[in-house]
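Filed under: proteins

Residues; backbone shape codes:
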Amino acid sequence: MAIKKSRIFTLFFSLLCGYNFAQQHKDPAYIKVTQKRASKIVEKLALSNPEEESLLIDIIAEQYRNLSQIHDKRDAKIGLIKLKKLSKTKQDQHIGRVTSKATKAINKLHKTYIHKLEIHLSPEKVDAVKDGMTYWVVPKTYQAFLEMLLQLTEEQKKFIYVNLVEAREQAMDAGSSKEKHAWFGKYKGRINNYLSAQGYDLNKESKDWHERIKKANKTKSQHETNKQP
């Protein structure tokens, strides 16, 4: 009897989740949020073509909603698995299959989405959309490395940039800000290990860089004070 009740509860929970997700992705308020998020990204592209801007806003906003739907369904299924009385091994196997299926769906969606962008935008603009979806972490972090490590070789610069771009490809499909930054954290760790192996003392380099920034800000402040009548 207890098993039957458990199955009924699981089925009810599954149906309820499915209904809630379907409603969420049709919710006008949620659609408005994704449109606004996409608008901010497109605004920075400076396209000067209202029709094209509107089309791209729809493409980007739809991508946010499609990603959210995959993430939500994955998380709901994992939640149901955790409700069942399974061994740790069995639970991990079931969760692994759900996660793998979701990852395949996301990868397929990613390719389709990039293709849509490439139809309307130059490679540089496509990169700008990717940066917009990932809080501009790539250009900001790359510039920070250049300013911190003044002796970087071209090969080292390439390694840093390539890894940041690879992180961006993963992060733009993540479901939350925390998950996006986690991807960059993983790749920045890889970059730091590489630079350490190349002979850089990153703690010292970081300290020296912040001292340079502090000194530059102080000089700028003094200059502005001297300019005042």
Notes: Confidence is low (pLDDT under 50) at residues 9-13. The chain has two domains: 9-132, 134-227.
